[in-house]
Specification:
The chain has about 170 residues and is an alpha+beta fold. It has 4 helices and 7 strands, in the order E-H-H-E-E-E-H-E-H-E-E. It has a 7-stranded mixed sheet. A hairpin with a 3-residue loop joins strand 3 and strand 4. It is globular and about 45 Å long.
Amino acid sequence: MQNLVLREATDVDVPSIVALIHAAFEEYRATLDPPSGAHAETEETVRGRMSSSRVFVALLAGTPIGCVFYEPAEDHVSFSRLAVLPAYRRRGIGRALIAHVEEWARTSDLSQVRLGVRIALAQLRAYYERLGYCLLETHAHDGYAEPTYVILAKDIHALGDREWSNVCEQP
């Protein structure tokens, strides 16, 4: 998208980040079990998350339209709360934010990028799989006997700039 700016978030961005998350996750209200924690995000919780995680924001003409949290670990980085305002979806903004996290991981010499996706959101899992993310683990939220989400991972050094289709091993 032309004129899209991606940058590291600061404390000044916190109110916009909260509004972005609420707007982006509104479609999942009352549809996920367990409910998404995104609806409970406040300026306080986002500031708390920013003490251990970092956030990229996407701006168009100076207006925040998307964001993603990312948190480095020993050998990988995990991203979460990828949020794009509904009016700006399907324009490559989510993909640009993910690519920004992947590039950050590369320059930080981390070998893998990970994210969690609800099993109930098959269309989101398929989106990430088209981007080269593969099933790593299956988990259940506390109090649930059956799996409720999966961890997907992408080895960002394995293929370089080559095509990502068909890179996941089939179970």
